[in-house]
């Protein structure tokens, strides 16, 4: 009796875990794939085997090269079968395996046959497969069919060809651009998606031609576009055109605005939303223009669809950053969203309200948020904390309730990122709102009494050390700090010791007591803590008696470290213990640009394109090594700066040349990086002849030609100039001279006789920015105040009409070639004024700090105030000259 | 000593990150901001337009009630390795698992991805795109996928049924999006394209060899016997 019961249980277990792919193994599936070779194909069986292999690939299994090739060849046999279902699976499998070029040839003919089949399904799929795996040479063979397919009367076939065209445009632009006429015809198609795909492709073909895009938009906005997706595309293109064209200054009317507005009344929500979003993102959008868009978004806020509510509230949130007043109408709807099931929507609603709220509504809002905070995830809480921080900066008088809120949530449970956001906010409030300092520091002290994050404890201790001594009663913080020395781990203890020392250095009345506390730290079990205690005791006390704190001590404790840490780290690693002590001055100060390769853009690899070319790493160390290895240049002394490569040729010409300018105190070396892009040529004795008639102060001293330059392997040739000290500017014209030898591409052998030839390069300028090193400072305000107003020069400049403030800011940064500090190079959208902080080192090792204040008025006139502080009056003047001449 | 230095400059270190112009261009979130187009060089422009002006699907995921893959498709190389993909799937799953996305599609956002999702039985459908994407377009794609699977599985939408018809699911994915470009969003059309499972009508019967015909006959026989 018991037996069947158990059986039943087993059955149910099977039921729950059942999967047709249970226990599937790669080896077994590869074995099964042999059925593809059967003379009598069983389509069902084959389909199953393909499904199994696709399942494996989908689960993350990979085939080795050999396995993939084997499966690929087996799969190609399946083209014999007439089974439509199986053929579809074969197509999928080929795409999944992404065969190599020599394998592609095997299936090309089968696919081309399918491309001309009577069955639409075959045509469409074969096109997509073939375009996915093909390369340029094959593409020219099938181009004719593709052009036909684009205007095929079956929409599936046309779409397949158009979408493939979009992908191919990335790899073979010159071929796809020839299809323009067919694509244009397809734009008029009655089939919705064909129109969408055709429009996308047509725009991409023409996107570099502003006039053509503008024409395209003008003709289409008159209304032939039916598909909602295509309509969305058109809205995007239209707003692009609007951004590039200037509004009619007299009436403030924009071209195409009527079109965007009419889209707000479209029947598809997708289009309405796209248009509303486009309007809110117009540059310098007027409230009058915003109103219809905001009204539509407001309706979406009370939709039953979460996606719609989310889209609307997210857009309004962005609008609130620049036009808070325009959004206030939606506040009531927004408040009801605080209790939305979807927490993302609720968070966006809260943060929008925080941005649009006025001073009187702050308290009410804070009450609502307090209830809300307990039931959302950390990531949402961080967003709220950041919004509260900016609210507090906007209404400094409300700091008390906001600071209380922050300290309350600081005491609650939360992860590191969340706590860090709160601490950061409190720190910023303390810095910007003087009244908030005492209470803020007190909250932080409370927090470190029970803080599980070492990183935050050390941060707060450091901050306490800087701010605490300047408060009215510094002594009350000592207890909290010394508690850390007793209770915490070594890292926190060490920073607590540093903090104590800072109090001792700044507050004379506390010095004797600090002395006692530091003495106790000498018995700590950790080396670092003891070392610090010893160091600070010596500094504070000197020869045993408690003395006035000297300037050196203050510099050491409070001065900023103006060397990038990463450089310091490499230098310390390279330092070998010897008689000679480590010299901090030997650490390079240049901020290295981050390698771009990691920031590889998403979606670039559509079809199997191979890796994108890696950006040349312009490490100055590498340059210095190359240059010092050349005897002619070894006497030039210390390399001050190497510029980024400047292209001297257009892209895709026969010879690609770029130049790197190396600046020394009394010399300049041009390093020409040449690449020969013609496989049939070998270049010999390559040199650049530089004409310096427009650069009188420079005289050529040496030139180092390049012996030979074979196809596609870059080589360098150098030219050196002598120049007076200081920032001397000049313009140089360049001609590339060389002897050409013909090369037989099949054998790679060069012919005997050579022909002399030359190639005109673009001009090269030595500009002022070449004499400035991008060196960041860690705390700009301290550095600025430390520099003093002695060598300050202030002046105002009009920059004329500029596209946007951000463009003006980046242009000035580029001209000066200095390092933006504290993220000030980023200009918030639509802001009317901006302050940018720059720092750098001028040739001759003179530190320079620059404070740029920009303002923009209605017709895009940009004015700039430039304040320069440096260690040398002449350098301050030089910076002004750069700007006034640039 | 390095520790001392670290703690000394902790505040501004966040700001030291050098924002290169090219990085600026590549950050998708900045495409719409109106600042990027002024730096556009011709070589970058093509790429930015490809990303910025065309609706672009980054991935479509079909997971089970434990967050395991049923079928997934990635179109963007934001997730270059299998591990990155699995981590992404895991976080997408855990972030959405507690929500009720059974009647209406839900939406969330993290790490610059917009994720729209809908659940049925023990299957979780996701479509993801960049943070500048039109949410409603993503939702349309999701709805097309969801409905098409419903049609193909004849209303029995659960994990078991999906795995047993995995070929249909994979073909369905293939018909919805091609390399990130939206191919079709109408569920009926998608399902119609996938389900046209029949012997190629264009092949005349006479072309079939005797053995092929026998094989087909045998198959029909066994199938009818097994019923």
Automatic annotation (TrEMBL), chain A:
Q: Which UniProt keywords apply?
A: Cytoplasm, Cytoplasmic vesicle, ER-Golgi transport, Golgi apparatus, Membrane, Protein transport, Repeat, Transport
- Which residue stretches belong to region Disordered? 593-619
Annotated localization: Cytoplasm; Golgi apparatus membrane; Cytoplasmic vesicle, COPI-coated vesicle membrane
What range(s) does the Coatomer subunit gamma C-terminal domain occupy?
A: 769-883
Ranges for domain Coatomer gamma subunit appendage Ig-like subdomain: 622-766
Question: In what residue span(s) does the Clathrin/coatomer adaptor adaptin-like N-terminal domain sit?
Answer: 27-540
Q: How does it sit in the membrane?
A: Peripheral membrane protein
What's a single GO CC term here? Answer: endoplasmic reticulum-Golgi intermediate compartment
Q: Which Pfam family, any one, appears in the UniProt record?
A: Adaptin_N
Gene Ontology molecular function terms on file = structural molecule activity
Subunit-structure text: Oligomeric complex that consists of at least the alpha, beta, beta', gamma, delta, epsilon and zeta subunits.
Q: What does this protein do?
A: The coatomer is a cytosolic protein complex that binds to dilysine motifs and reversibly associates with Golgi non-clathrin-coated vesicles, which further mediate biosynthetic protein transport from the ER, via the Golgi up to the trans Golgi network. Coatomer complex is required for budding from Golgi membranes, and is essential for the retrograde Golgi-to-ER transport of dilysine-tagged proteins.
Give the protein family: Belongs to the COPG family.
Protein name as annotated: Coatomer subunit gamma
Say which species the protein is native to.
Aquilegia coerulea (Rocky mountain columbine)
TrEMBL record, chain B:
Query: Residues in domain AP complex mu/sigma subunit?
Result: 57-195
Locations listed in the record? Cytoplasm; Golgi apparatus membrane; Cytoplasmic vesicle, COPI-coated vesicle membrane
Give the GO terms filed under biological process for this record: intra-Golgi vesicle-mediated transport; intracellular protein transport; retrograde vesicle-mediated transport, Golgi to endoplasmic reticulum
Give membrane topology per the record: Peripheral membrane protein
Q: Please name the Pfam families in this protein's record.
A: Clat_adaptor_s
Entries under InterPro entries matching the protein: AP_mu_sigma_su (IPR022775), Coatomer_zeta (IPR039652), Longin-like_dom_sf (IPR011012)
Top-rank taxon, per record: Eukaryota
Name a single GO cellular component.
COPI vesicle coat
- Keywords in alphabetical order, please: Cytoplasm, Cytoplasmic vesicle, ER-Golgi transport, Golgi apparatus, Membrane, Protein transport, Transport
SUBUNIT field: Oligomeric complex that consists of at least the alpha, beta, beta', gamma, delta, epsilon and zeta subunits.
Report the protein's function.
The coatomer is a cytosolic protein complex that binds to dilysine motifs and reversibly associates with Golgi non-clathrin-coated vesicles, which further mediate biosynthetic protein transport from the ER, via the Golgi up to the trans Golgi network. Coatomer complex is required for budding from Golgi membranes, and is essential for the retrograde Golgi-to-ER transport of dilysine-tagged proteins. The zeta subunit may be involved in regulating the coat assembly and, hence, the rate of biosynthetic protein transport due to its association-dissociation properties with the coatomer complex.
The record ties this protein, via PANTHER family, to:
COATOMER SUBUNIT ZETA, ZETA-COAT PROTEIN
Protein name, as recorded = Coatomer subunit zeta
Q: What phylogenetic lineage does the species belong to?
A: Eukaryota, Viridiplantae, Streptophyta, Embryophyta, Tracheophyta
């Amino acid at each position: 009796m018991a037996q069947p019961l158990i059986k039943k249980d087993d059955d149910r277990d099977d039921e729950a875990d059942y999967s047709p792919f249970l226990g599937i193994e790669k080896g077994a599936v590869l074995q099964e794939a042999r059925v593809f070779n059967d003379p009598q194909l069983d389509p069902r069986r084959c389909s199953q085997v393909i499904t199994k292999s696709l399942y494996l690939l989908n689960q993350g299994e990979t085939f080795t090269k050999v396995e993939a090739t084997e499966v690929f060849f087996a799969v190609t046999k399946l083209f014999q079968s007439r089974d439509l279902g199986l053929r579809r699976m074969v197509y999928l499998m080929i795409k999944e395996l992404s065969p190599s070029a020599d394998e592609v040839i095997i299936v090309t003919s089968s696919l081309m046959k399918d491309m001309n089949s009577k069955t639409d399904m075959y045509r469409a799929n074969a096109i997509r497969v073939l375009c996915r795996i093909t390369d340029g040479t094959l593409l020219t063979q099938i181009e004719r069919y593709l052009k036909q397919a684009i205007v095929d009367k079956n929409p599936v076939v046309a779409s397949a060809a158009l979408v493939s065209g979009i992908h191919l445009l990335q790899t073979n632009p010159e071929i796809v651009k020839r299809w323009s006429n067919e694509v244009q015809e397809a734009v008029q198609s009655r089939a919705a998606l064909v129109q969408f795909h055709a429009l996308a492709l047509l725009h991409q073909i023409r996107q570099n031609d502003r006039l053509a895009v503008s024409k395209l938009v003008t003709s289409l906005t008159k209304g032939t576009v039916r598909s909602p997706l295509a309509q969305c595309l058109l809205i995007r293109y239209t707003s692009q055109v609007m951004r590039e064209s200037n509004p009619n200054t007299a009436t403030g009317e924009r071209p195409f605005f009527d079109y965007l507005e009419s889209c707000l009344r479209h029947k598809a929500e997708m289009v309405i939303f796209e248009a509303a979003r486009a309007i809110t993102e117009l540059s310098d959008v007027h409230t009058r223009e915003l109103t219809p868009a905001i009204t539509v978004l407001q309706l979406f806020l009370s939709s039953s669809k979460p996606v719609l509510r989310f889209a609307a509230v997210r857009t309004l949130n962005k609008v609130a950053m620049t036009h808070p007043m325009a959004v206030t109408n939606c506040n009531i709807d927004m408040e009801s969203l605080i209790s939305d099931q979807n927490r993302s929507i609720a968070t966006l609603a809260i943060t929008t309200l925080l941005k649009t709220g006025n001073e009187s509504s702050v308290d009410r809002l804070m009450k609502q948020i307090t209830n809300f905070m307990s039931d959302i995830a950390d990531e949402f809480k961080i967003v709220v904390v950041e919004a509260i921080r900016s609210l507090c900066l906007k209404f400094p008088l409300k700091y008390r309730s906001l600071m209380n809120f922050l300290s309350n949530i600081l005491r609650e449970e939360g992860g590191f990122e969340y706590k860090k956001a709160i601490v950061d906010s409190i720190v910023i409030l303390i810095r910007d709102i003087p009244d908030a300092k005492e209470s803020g520091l007190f909250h932080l002290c409370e927090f470190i009494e029970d803080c599980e994050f070492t990183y935050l404890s050390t941060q707060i201790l450091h901050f306490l050390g800087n701010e605490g001594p300047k408060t009215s009663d510094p002594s009350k913080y000592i207890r909290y700090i010394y508690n850390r020395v007793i209770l915490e781990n070594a890292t926190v203890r060490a920073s607590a010791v540093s903090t104590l020392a800072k109090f001792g250095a700044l507050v004379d009345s506390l010095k004797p007591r600090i002395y006692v506390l530091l003495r106790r730290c000498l018995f700590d079990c950790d080396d670092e803590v003891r070392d610090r205690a010893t160091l600070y005791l010596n500094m504070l006390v000197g020869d045993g008696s408690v003395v006035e704190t000297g300037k050196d001590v203050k510099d050491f404790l409070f001065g900023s470290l103006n060397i990038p840490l990463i450089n310091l780290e490499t230098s310390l690693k390279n330092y070998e213990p010897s008689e000679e002590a480590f010299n901090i001055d030997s650490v390079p100060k240049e901020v290295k640009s981050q390698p771009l390769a990691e920031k590889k853009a998403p979606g670039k690899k559509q079809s199997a394109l191979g890796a994108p070319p890696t950006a040349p790493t312009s490490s100055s160390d590498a340059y210095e090594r190359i240059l010092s290895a050349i005897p002619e240049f070894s006497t030039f002394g210390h390399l001050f700066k190497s510029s980024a490569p400047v292209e001297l040729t257009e892209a895709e010409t026969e010879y690609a040349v770029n130049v790197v300018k190396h600046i020394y105190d009394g010399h300049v070396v041009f390093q020409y990086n040449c690449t020969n892009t013609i496989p049939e040529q070998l270049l010999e004795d390559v040199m650049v002849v530089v004409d310096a008639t427009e650069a009188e102060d420079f005289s050529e001293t040496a030139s180092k030609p390049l012996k030979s330059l074979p196809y596609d392997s870059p080589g360098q040739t150098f030219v050196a100039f002598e120049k007076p000290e200081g920032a001397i500017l000049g313009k140089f014209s360049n001609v590339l001279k060389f002897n050409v030898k013909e090369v037989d591409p099949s054998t790679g052998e060069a012919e005997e006789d050579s022909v002399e030839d030359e190639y005109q390069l673009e001009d090269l300028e030595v500009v002022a920015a070449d004499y400035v090193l991008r060196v960041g400072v860690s705390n700009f305000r301290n550095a600025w105040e430390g520099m003093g107003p002695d060598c300050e020069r202030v002046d105002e400049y009009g920059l004329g009409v500029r596209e946007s403030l951000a463009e003006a800011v980046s242009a000035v940064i580029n001209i000066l070639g200095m390092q933006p500090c504290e993220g000030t190079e980023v200009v918030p959208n639509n802001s009317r004024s901006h302050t940018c902080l720059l720092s750098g080192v001028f040739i001759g090792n003179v530190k320079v700090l620059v404070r740029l204040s920009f303002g923009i008025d209605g017709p895009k006139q940009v004015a700039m105030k430039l304040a320069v502080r440096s260690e040398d009056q002449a350098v301050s003047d030089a910076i002004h000259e750069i700007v006034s001449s640039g | 000593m390095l520790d001392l230095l670290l703690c000394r400059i902790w505040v501004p270190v966040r700001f030291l990150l050098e924002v290169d112009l090219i990085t600026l261009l590549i950050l998708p979130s900045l495409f719409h901001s109106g600042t990027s187009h002024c730096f556009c060089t011709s070589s970058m422009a093509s790429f930015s337009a490809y990303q910025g002006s065309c609706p672009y699907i980054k991935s479509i995921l079909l997971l089970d009630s434990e967050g395991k893959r049923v079928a997934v498709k990635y179109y963007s190389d934001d997730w270059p390795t299998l591990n990155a993909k699995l981590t992404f799937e895991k976080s997408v799953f855990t972030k959405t698992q507690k929500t009720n996305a059974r009647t209406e599609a839900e939406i969330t956002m993290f790490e610059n991805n917009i994720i729209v999702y809908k659940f049925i039985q023990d299957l979780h459908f996701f479509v993801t795109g960049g943070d500048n994407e039109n949410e409603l377009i993503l939702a349309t794609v999701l709805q097309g996928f969801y409905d098409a699977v419903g049609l193909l599985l004849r209303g029995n939408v659960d994990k078991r049924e999906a795995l047993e018809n995995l070929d249909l699911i994979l073909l369905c994915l293939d018909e919805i999006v091609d390399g990130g470009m939206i191919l079709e969003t109408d569920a009926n059309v998608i399902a119609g394209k996938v389900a046209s499972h029949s012997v190629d009508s264009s092949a005349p019967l006479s072309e079939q060899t005797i053995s092929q015909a026998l094989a087909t006959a045998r198959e029909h026989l066994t199938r009818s016997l097994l019923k």
